[in-house]
Structures are given as structure tokens and as C-alpha cells.
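Revision sheet: C-alpha cells.
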Amino acid sequence: MSDLHIKIENWINSQFDENISGLGDDKYVVVRSDNKFLKNKQIWVIKYIKSTIIFSQNKWVSDLEHFITNMDKEMLFSIYGAFELGRVLSKDKIRINGPSYYLFGDRDNCNLEVDPRAFVASREEMESLDKEIFWHCDIDNAVSGLAVKNNGQISALATIVDEGEGVYEIGMEVHRDSQGLGMGKAVVNAAVQWILNVGGIPLATVGPFNVPSARTLRSVGLKYYMMDMSGEFGEFIVPPQALGTPVKNMDIYNLYPDWAMNNLIKSKIR
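Predicted:
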């Protein structure tokens, strides 16, 4: 097992009061979670190496144990799996987020030079930004932020949040008027290098539908190590359609006609 794998396992185990027995082994189980973890999420579903584990409050354990007897673990991490989990937990109005890929990095894989356009943004600069535009950036909790300007204004930002055990999560957004200029890669790589320089482990998460962001994260050397879904109280939400195209300027089309689209989906709640 690599040094990075060990550090990732330590980070996963740090979410709980006790280490997870056999993390990474071939298992598909429901585990009663503890209060330390559940202050952040109601349920957490992870796929790490050969392990698929649902961490849950005690009140849902029995229902979820029945659920996994009928849900193939290879189908769980999908929109279908998220809907079926939502079905089990619907009486408590639990919404399911994900699935999401978790990409981590180290110096062996993340070794690009920092783009000279990137700079460390001040707290005042970050707080002046429109959070509805930079909505993938956790400005409030950021320990640092790397930015690129266009026409004198910050147009791309990558925030860095300390997630404990030396893991720092990157959130990135590029202003819609400045996309296609390589700014996303510039700020993400600058954030990765900032984290590595303080002795940390860079982490970024991305949904399978978000092709442009996944390409950006992989382009700076971040690699897939795990996948998750999580549950929290709130109205049920669905992921967007796939973003981006296979190659630039390619025409792409909906498989279904407009009349067959899911008209039960309401507009995003602000």
C-alpha cells in the first residue's frame, strides 16, 4: 500500500471515534455511526478499494440493511442508487448528494509549475466576491485562496479548506465570462502546490456529470481514490445534465425529446 493510501485511510478513520475494521477489504455493509461523524452528515456512503460501506444513524440501520440485500453495490453509486436511497429515507426528508469522485494528490503526481497569473488572494479580495458566482468556493472557511484576474477583476478562484489529518480540500470556480482561458487549471494547480508546500494532501471532489472540472483536476495530477454519497435533511435534489463535450465544438444532443424530459424537477432553490 502506498504512503498516500495510508494517509487517506487515516483521514477516513479520523471522521469516527474508532477505526473502521478492514477498511478497503471486500465488504458491503451498513455500519452504525457515532456522534462525532453524524454532526456533519445523516448518512455517508463510501466506496474505497473493495469496501462499500453505509454509515448511518441507528434508526435507519435496519432499513438500510434490507436495502443492500436488494441493491447491487455496483449500481449503488449512480443516479439510480441515489434515488433508491432517497426512497428508503423519504419519510425523514433526507436528500442524497452524489455520487462524487474524491481525487487526491502528492508530489510524485502533482509536479507542474505554477502559472504566473496565479496569486494568493487576500481575505478582503475573497470576501468581496459574489458568492452566487463563486458558489463552488468555500470562502467563509478557506485558509487560503488562489486567484487569477481578467481585466483587473478576479475571474477564477480556488479556495483551500482544512479537512483535518493534513488533508486540504480545493473548491474552484471560474467566472462564466472567463471560461476557456485555462484559468481553472491555473488556480487549481496553484492551490495544489500551496497545499504540498505546507506538507498537506490536496483533495478535490467532483460529480461524474461535471466533465470539464474532472478534466481540470486530473490535468494537474490529482488521481481518483474513493467515491461517496451523503445524506442530509432537505428537499430532494438531482444532478444536472452532463456538462461539456467530448471534444471542443462537437455537437451533442439529448437522447430524449423535450416532451420526455422529467417535468417533475423544479427550479433550483436559492
